[in-house]
Design goal:
Layout: H1 3-33, H2 39-111, H3 118-127, H4 129-145, H5 169-175
Length: 195
Amino acid sequence: MKISDAQKIYRENRKQLVEQRRALIKQRDDLKKMTPASEEEKVRFSEEAATLELSIKEVNKAFDKNQEVLDNLTEQYCAVWNAEVARQQGDALKEQAIELGKIMVVFRRIAHGDIVPGKDEQKLMDYNMEMYMAAKNLGAMRRAEEEKKEKYDSLWEDEEKTEEEEYDPQGRADNAEATVDLPEISVPNITVEDL
């Protein structure tokens, strides 16, 4: 079962348990407010109050069990979410490292006096104008010394991403399989007529 589906089920259970607890407490309080007319009514009222107390305790136990499962699901949800965010950050750092490597190669090529595409020069210029100027100055000095120049293709050409990954931590967390024990928690249906 998906975490999001399990959370919906257990949240609905919690809502029903809260509503049932409120109704039972209201019934108990209303019963306490009643004044028994006879000794027989007094015994009956106290029996009903005791039954309501037991019912409230039963609902509280079910609520606590349900809340424990919800807490475990929330922990798992957060773990999946955080893992997805960490993966995204790792991917971004990897892309930045690759980009920096290419910039350094362009810097070296220009500094050697080699011919690089304008697009590559523009990338270096955008990254750091001072690096670009230093590379151009070094390249001009080298060209004066040597006559042979190497000509390179762009490092950024044909770099279209064929598969763009969606980064969606919430979607990953919602669709992750729940690994916590998901016990069946029944919502007792206790009404005044049952008492």
